[in-house]
């Protein structure tokens, strides 16, 4: 596996100019060793090594794919990952992430059960059936157990998200969360990499940005 000089990564970020379609500031201050220990003690798991090194040497959040790396901050005495309009307080991180392959078929199968308007004699009955279907969709597709053992690492926008798995066979890998548009949860990949670690994922983004600015 490629060795990454994380302190150098921070210097490379500071030299970059944000693209016109993105606005980001400098990386946030890195976590101290004591803060990282406290964070891991609170969440009850040891974070993947490359993400630990990012937090210690690059920043607790900052520039990254799409809208950047979600910062982890201490809020009212507890460590949380902070999105644009939400805070994620991790639970069940010690439980293994349940997936090994893409689960897009969960949504595909559910789509086949969408109520057929022509099967209802009354509009009100059809509307009730549609509401019941949407309620079930929320219960099945967005069941929080589907992301046990993972933390949100990046928001793509419009409800799309990326997760870093911290527990289970997929530990250390990035997974794409495209459930809002029917594509389910799928492992991120790169050419020659069927699975992508946090370090590979981040370095690929950084090198792509640097190449665009030469």
Using the alpha-carbon principal axes, give the shape. globular
Largest sheet entry: 4 strands, antiparallel
Question: Which structural category do the helix and sheet elements fall into?
Answer: alpha+beta
Q: Estimate nothing, just give the exact number of structural domains.
A: 2
Number of helices: 6
Neighbour order of strands in the largest sheet: 4-5-6-7
Fraction of residues in helices? 25-40%
CATH topology of the largest domain: the name is: SMI1/KNR4-like
Q: What share of the residues does DSSP label as strand, in percent?
A: 15-25%
Uncertain residue segments? none
Radius of gyration: 20 Å
Order of helices and strands: HHHEEEHHEEEEH
Q: What is the correct CATH architecture of the largest domain?
A: 3-Layer(aba) Sandwich
InterPro entries: Knr4/Smi1-like_dom, Knr4/Smi1-like_sf
Domain Knr4/Smi1-like: 30-208
Protein name: SMI1/KNR4 family protein
Pfam family, one: SMI1_KNR4
